[in-house]
Structures are given as C-alpha cells and as structure tokens.
Amino acid sequence: MPTVVASSHDGWAASPLLGTYAGARSHAGDGVGSTNSYDNNGVWHYYASRRGKYGIRRAFFDFDTTSITVAPSAATFKVYGMINGSGDIIAVKTNHVTTLVATTFYDAFDHSPAAQTALDNSDGSGAGTFAGISGLAYSAAIDTWSTSGYNDIALNATALADMASEDTFNICLMNYDHDYLDVDGTASEQNGMRFYENGDGKWPYIDYTAGTAAADNATFFGANF
C-alpha cells in the first residue's frame, strides 16, 4: 500500500487562551507552533474554570500529492498520539499556506465562504456549526484517541478526490464536540500528537489504495463503425 508523509510544515495555530468562547473560535489567530516535534495539546478546547475563559487550538498538516493523479479508492490519515486523548476529533479541508502563521487559525478556511460565515456566527450554542457545510469534512468524528500509538482517520470521498486534484493536500484536525459544532463546554479537552519534526519515525502519514483510471473506449467504439 503506497504512503505519503506529511511535510515539515505541519503544526498548530491557536486563538488566545483567555477569551470568550465565541471570540476564541472566530479569532484571526494569536499563536502558532510550526517547528514542534510534538505537542501535548495539538488540538485543544481550553477552558479555565476559575475565569470562565476559553481558547482553541487546531492542528494543520500538508502533503505533496503531485504523484497522485487518480482518486484513491481508500485512504487513512495516521497520526501518532501522546499524553492527552480526551477530545473527539474530526478532519476538515483547509487551504492553508505551507508556512504556518498565527492567522492560519482563521484564514485556512477562506476557500469556503460558508465556513467563514460559520466562524463569524460563533456563539457557543451551534449558530456557527460546521456540520452540513458541503465539502468541508474529510472524515467522520473520531471518538477515541490513542496516546501511545497511531490513530487511524478514514478519509471520505471528498478527501480522496482532493488528493488527486490538488498538488498540495491540506488537512486540519479540530475538536469535534466544541470547535466543529460550535458548542462551548466547561471542561478542557486535549489531544496530543507527534509532528513530522519528531525524527523518530512516528511522523504523520497517509496510507492509500491507488485508484483505477477510467478506461478510454474511444478507439474501441470507433472500430465498430
């Protein structure tokens, strides 16, 4: 089974850690970690109970898919987890640039006006949910997270098509129950993960099954006139 490994541009982008929920989710971006070999909180719905303040962190990955010209028949995004695994996760489509900056937190969704509108509508009660936005989700929600091995995220048909049509295939991992659905909460949820820079072979990658190109029957049919 062929594989494609994430580039060294992976990492996280975040909002401030002590804001309102709506302000945190729709923030332009306040922090970035683009050279970490791992992070205990690569994806994070942060809540400070004593202050009633929030923060959100999303993880970003990109892959060189120039060699994939036909949509794979199946693909699994594999991320090595560590330390924390309390949050549910979902993979979504982004168009972030390869060099992460703080504004990646918000700007990565500018390919989708519906996603931008949802972020702007954030209220912690679902008004800004990403659910139902066509072409945005790359996976189903993942409700278990290993902290000592690879987590397998099955990519859907939208992701498979984009792997073939885009030279750089981008993925964002975000908290599902809060960030994706726009529902605030009174507990922090954290997911730790290793990035490409870890150097110990536990980097993020995609396993895929190569697709089959559609047959060109022009010659066949032409011969029957």
What does this protein look like?
The protein has helices at 21-25, 104-107, 113-120, 157-165, 176-180, 218-222; strands spanning 3-5, 11-14, 31-33, 38-48, 53-64, 74-85, 89-93, 150-154, 168-175, 189-194, 205-209. With 225 residues, it is α+β, with helices and mostly antiparallel strands. Strands 1, 2, 3, 4, 5, 6, 7, 8, 9, 10 and 11 form an 11-stranded antiparallel β-sheet that branches. It is globular.
Report the average pLDDT across residues: 93
Strand content: 25-35%
Number of helices: 6
Secondary-structure element order, N to C: EEHEEEEEHHEHEHEEH
The backbone outline, from C-alpha atoms, is: globular
Task: Estimate percent helicity.
Answer: 10-25%
Distance between the termini: 41 Å
Number of strands: 11
Q: Which descriptors apply to this entry?
A:
alpha+beta; eleven-stranded antiparallel sheet; 225 residues; 16% helix; 11 strands
Task: Summarize the SSE layout with pairings.
Layout: E1 3-5, E2 11-14, H1 21-25, E3 31-33, E4 38-48, E5 53-64, E6 74-85, E7 89-93, H2 104-107, H3 113-120, E8 150-154, H4 157-165, E9 168-175, H5 176-180, E10 189-194, E11 205-209, H6 218-222
Antiparallel strand pairs: 1-11, 2-3, 2-5, 4-5, 4-10, 5-9, 6-8, 6-10, 6-11, 7-9
